[in-house]
Amino acid sequence: MSQKSITIPQDFILGAASSAWQTEGWSGKKEGQDSYMDIWYKNDRHVWHEGYGPAVATDLYNRYREEVALMKQAGLTHYRTSINWSRFFTDYEKGVVDEEYARYYDNFIDEMLAAGIEPMICLEHYELPAYLFENYGGWASKKVVELFVLYAEKVFERYHHKVSRWFTFNEPIVVQTRVYLDALRWPYEQNTSTWMQWNHHKNLATAKVVKLFREKGYTGSVGAILNPEVTYPRSSAPHDVKAAEMYDLFYNRVFLDPMVHGRYPQALVALLEQHGVQWDYSADELALIRDNTVDELGINLYYPHRVKAPSRAWNPQTPFHPAYYYEPFELPGRRMNKSRGWEIYPRIIYDMAMRIKNDYRNIPWFIAESGMGIENEGQFRNAEGVIQDNYRIGFISEHLYQTLLAREAGANCQGYMLWAFTDNVSPMNAFKNRYGLIEIDLQNNRARRAKKSAGWYRALRETRTLTLNIDDDWK
Hints:
Layout: E1 2-7, E2 13-17, H1 36-43, H2 60-73, E3 78-82, H3 85-88, E4 89-91, E5 96-97, H4 99-114, E6 118-124, H5 130-136, H6 142-159, E7 165-170, H7 174-181, H8 192-216, E8 221-226, E9 231-233, H9 238-251, H10 253-261, H11 266-274, H12 283-291, E10 296-300, E11 305-308, E12 327-328, E13 336-337, E14 342-343, H13 347-359, E15 365-369, E16 374-375, H14 390-408, E17 413-419, E18 433-434, E19 438-441, E20 447-450, H15 452-463, E21 465-470
Parallel strand pairs: 2-3, 2-17, 3-6, 6-7, 7-8, 8-10, 9-11, 10-15, 15-17
Antiparallel strand pairs: 1-21, 4-5, 11-12, 13-14, 16-18, 19-20
Helix pairs in contact: 2-4, 6-8, 7-8, 8-10, 8-12, 13-14
């Protein structure tokens, strides 16, 4: 075991993240303001752990002042969340702002600024209005792209003088992958063509919002929060290497390339055509994507992804799925977060950093989510009632260390943001796995209580030095 210390630059973000739907609850929500997440919960409540969902969440809508005080106490420099599109309007077609909800964000943002915390705002974190999902098929429709631009216009008008860092989407690939590719979430409709149409329209919407922001002359930047999976082949054999390249093409490059380079990989377009995946796009849309790339990226990283070449022939009666080209591979002896079923491999951050540096023009970026969810955290509570989450401190330390090493190696990495600030609702898992620096007590009216990690995170901010132990002994 050796001890390492590394300096945290003064301009390096030490923040945390969440989203509107995972924290706010339904207080003040009006009839017709459901999001996709709300109707999934209403239609499929039995798949949500112990029935918890977005209805109350952490009740942030009523407790944002208390929340900001805790952010300041934990030493956050930045806080990233979303505005709930489904609640921001009372009429999505005409762009009529719900003034009551907008005032909540007026006050929440002002509270953060007064506490010296910079807000970073995402326009869509799975909060597609249910009205647009039910009437237009959601992101399958070009009409929804235009209505999203209208929404962005209204949000920018109201908050551009308070917020300078904007993001169009958080993890734009996730909803359609779970619904239309894997059919794992409501309404369980396997359709690979719809999956690709959603991908394209989110890329197009991002380009249109970037264009709008620049034409309006607003100060600041527009980016996106992506979740590319660092994908390793089982072996160096050509068939395994190809499997990893194909996984990367379909799940990572489908957003990285158009958002940063302004174009889809030609190999992806050719494979979609080869397999009969039909998606509607035009030369004008591709030109918009080409001319309006993002200013920065947030990157969400939790675990590595490992694949191998397929060992069985594809069933010809099964519609095309990218899994035609790969199979998952589980590394024997891997280190695990057993609560979540995820491998722990901090090196993913350094490897992704070098890829962005070398393959994506070293665009400015930051870790937008990184964290450790643990089940039954109450077992780690001490006599004073404080959760002793040394496992979380260790996880953050190792991943932050790789981030800082990458920055020293020339990566244009601006910071590290933890998922999440408080325990909050996750899709289906609800409050099962706890991620926060701050505990949410479900048995005590959502009372907040700082965990040990919150004080440790503040000390990082104050000392600007990360010290950690590395298990590097030959045993």
